[in-house]
Design a protein that fits this description.
six-stranded parallel β-sheet, globular, Rossmann fold, alpha/beta, eight-stranded mixed β-sheet
Length: 428
């Protein structure tokens, strides 16, 4: 049985793609260890987790011990739990006998506690821990998810006498995505991409982009959900109407996923007053959630637009099943968004929820070929409202789209797509 060491730069609590990949490998003759990041603020996760007999998770300690000690010392002193005079006395003695060393140490501690040096220290130490774990694991195959774990995979796989194969699994377009604006990311990826053995991207549009950029066409592994996990019977669904205090006949207009910039969520709120009926529900968390909630409050729409915190991946379909329609309205802020074929789109399909989706190439193709919803210009609130109202005013068309989801999910599912992952691994 070949052993796989996989890296991902998150806590592995809601990463559906990585969960599917690791599970598929562990069910098909591979022993998988996933190396990710611990979250000391989340008591529900542990540093070690055994998902099944051949799939284990190792979460690396997030913060350096020395930094934690210095932070506690700093808070203790600032909290005035120490008398000021003894502190000044000790510091004065040190300055008198070791002036330059004391000043340098003081500056260093200040930098480590309060500036970007601290961030570099935390990330650098975490990367080092991941590399040590990966290198000592001596796996048969290494697998890096996204650019932020490619160095860990490369060093673990290639900095040894007997080099090991490295698979680069790029979930996003690393050179054109939110937060990756510096040209250094292209140079960084370009350096490592020549040194890995296989690359996978999420769809054919991105594969062609990669070919134009680097001169080769990578493997395509679509981010389709699992039929086994996603399909939910009516009797098993969470009663979202009851949870939100809504009448049973109220139509739930659902967005599920990260509450992040560039996903058209502000446009949904702007469009809402134009909807003929329904309650808009957001399920998820993210950086702009407070902003969206303030927008709702400013418009006095608290009763009509509701927010639910993120739920575990395996439980999410129980909520999805309640929706009259689902939204996937990414904005074209970079190539990564424009080329996406979002997992959320297919999660709606799995539970027979028609969609109002952006008219970007991969998403439009899936929606229109399968006839599971309508596509619109996601940048225009009037266009969004037009799509929503079409489904509200034509319930028979909505039911037709919903029925078509049953056939669409037979095509867009992980049970079929996993064969592309296994095909890559069989080479090694």
């Amino acid at each position: 049985m070949k052993r796989v060491g996989m890296f991902v730069w998150n806590h592995f609590t809601n990463d559906a793609r990585v969960l599917r990949e690791c599970t598929s490998l562990s069910n098909n003759g591979y022993d998988v260890e996933l190396i990710c990041i611990d979250d000391p603020k989340d008591p529900t996760i542990s540093q070690y987790e055994e998902v099944n007999e051949h799939f284990r998770v190792h979460r690396m300690k997030r913060y350096p011990t020395t930094l934690l000690f210095l932070q506690k010392l700093y808070r203790f002193a600032v909290g005035k739990k120490w008398p000021l005079i003894p502190i000044l006395a000790v510091w004065g003695v040190m300055v008198y006998f070791l002036p330059w060393l004391t000043i340098l140490l003081t500056i260093l501690v200040g930098l480590l506690l309060k500036t970007k040096v601290r961030v570099v220290w935390i990330r650098g130490a975490l990367i080092l821990r991941m590399i040590i774990k990966g290198h000592c694991g001596n796996y048969d195959i290494y697998h890096s998810n996204d650019l932020n774990t490619l160095p860990q995979g490369y060093i673990s796989a290639k900095w040894r006498f007997k080099k090991k194969p490295l698979v680069y699994d790029s979930h996003e377009v690393q050179t054109s995505r939110t937060g990756y604006d510096s040209p250094w990311y292209k140079r960084f990826e370009g350096f490592f991409i020549k040194r890995m053995d296989s690359m996978m991207v999420e769809n054919n549009t991105r594969a062609k982009f990669n070919e134009d950029l680097y001169g080769f066409y990578p493997h395509v592994l679509h981010n389709y959900p699992s039929m086994e996990i996603q399909q939910v019977e009516d009797k098993d669904k969470v009663n979202l109407h009851e949870m939100l205090g809504l009448l049973p006949e109220e139509k739930i207009l659902l967005y599920q996923g990260g509450i992040q910039a560039g996903r058209g969520l502000e446009k949904l709120i702007e469009a809402f007053p134009l909807f003929k009926e329904g309650t808009l529900v957001f399920i998820g968390d993210g950086k702009i959630k407070d902003k969206l909630q303030q927008m709702v409050k400013d418009r006095r729409l608290e009763d009509a637009i509701r927010f639910i915190p993120k739920v575990p991946v395996r439980d999410l379909p129980k909520y999805t099943k309640n929706a009259y329609l689902g939204f996937q309205v990414l904005n074209n802020i970079n190539f990564n968004h424009w080329s996406a074929s979002s997992n959320k789109l297919f999660e709606y399909m799995m539970n027979e929820v028609p969609v109002v989706a952006c008219d970007f190439p991969e998403i439009k193709k899936a929606v229109e070929e399968s006839e599971v919803g309508v596509t619109i210009d996601p940048h225009d609130p009037n266009e969004i409202a037009k799509g929503v109202n079409y489904l509200l005013e034509n319930p028979e068309k909505r039911d037709y789209f919903s029925s078509n989801c049953k056939n669409a999910r037979k095509k867009y599912n992980w049970e079929k797509e996993q064969e592309n992952l296994l095909e890559v691994y069989r080479k090694y």
